[in-house]
Design brief:
Structural class: alpha+beta
Number of strands: 15
Order of helices and strands: HHEEEEEEEEEEEEEHEE
Helix content: 10-25%
Radius of gyration: 24 Å
Low-confidence stretches: 17-26
Strand content: over 45%
Shape: globular
Distance between the termini: 62 Å
Number of helices: 3
Largest sheet: 15 strands, antiparallel
């Protein structure tokens, strides 16, 4: 009886091992079509791959396209990706991305972790108009200029954010402003603390805030010196209440 039980146990172990190996082979040979289906699904039908080839784990596409609700599309350039095996041992699904955005290539590692997302070695540049497809309320402003984002390690979860990141808005413009571009700005994020400062331009924007698990809160000021103040005054009124001497309060609160 003992020998029979041992043989049955060995057979069960072989079946389990065979099933695991079969699933592993399915995973490593997963076709690129899986990536083509997952990307639109998890981007709210906003991102699509064109002329993709390779596999789910390693591949490239001739173009990464952003689709808008009105049927227009915007090209971000050719993209390459590769899944990273080592982070899987830490419970992460990490993918290294190379995107041929103008005026320079963008790179970074995006990892899905329990309860959030982790970004590593991020160096990204793209037109800010790309983001309006994900935030329809921005379309009224029709923002222009380039966004540049840098982060060595940055995580977003239900509890808030951790790590350090910098985002520059270069040659900022808007269809609602009579002066364009009206400046360049730097937003730094350090362990959930926000700091906005002006790098150049006639419109000075500054302020501090906090990004936590409850949402984002920001308080700042907008001001312009003569002779540009008159031309920017109507635009600054959109930010908030005038505090005097051509200074306007900027207040934002976004709850989760």
């Amino acid at each position: 009886m003992k020998k029979l039980a041992d043989r049955m146990l060995n057979r069960k172990q072989l079946v389990v091992l065979g099933a695991v190996l079969y699933l592993f082979l399915l995973l490593i040979t997963a076709p690129v079509g899986i990536m083509e289906r997952l990307l639109p699904h998890y981007s709210g039908e906003r991102l699509y791959l064109q002329s993709a080839h390779g596999s789910f784990w390693r591949g490239e596409a001739a173009d990464l396209v952003v689709a808008s609700t009105d049927g227009n599309t915007q090209s971000l350039g050719a993209i390459k990706w590769r899944m990273l095996w080592l982070p899987i041992l830490r419970g992460e699904l990490a993918i290294a991305l190379d995107l041929a955005t103008a005026p320079k290539e963008s790179h970074g590692i995006v990892a899905l972790v329990p309860g959030g997302i982790r970004l590593r070695k991020i160096d990204v540049a793209m037109p800010i108009s790309t983001l309006t497809e994900f935030y329809p309320n921005w379309k009224l402003w029709q923002p222009g200029g380039m966004l540049e984002a840098h982060a060595e390690m940055f995580g977003v979860s239900r509890d808030g954010v951790n790590g350090v990141a910098e985002v520059k808005w270069q040659n900022a413009s808007s269809s609602l402003s009579r002066i364009n571009p009206f400046g360049s700005y730097l937003l730094s994020v350090k362990e959930g603390k926000l700091n906005l400062s002006a790098l150049s331009g006639p419109l000075q924007l500054s302020g501090q805030g906090e990004w936590s698990g409850r949402g984002v809160k920001f308080e700042g000021m907008a001001q312009a010196e003569p002779p540009t103040r008159d031309n920017l005054q109507d635009f600054m009124r959109l930010f908030g209440k005038e505090e005097g001497s051509g200074t306007y309060r900027v207040s934002m609160s976004l709850a989760r």
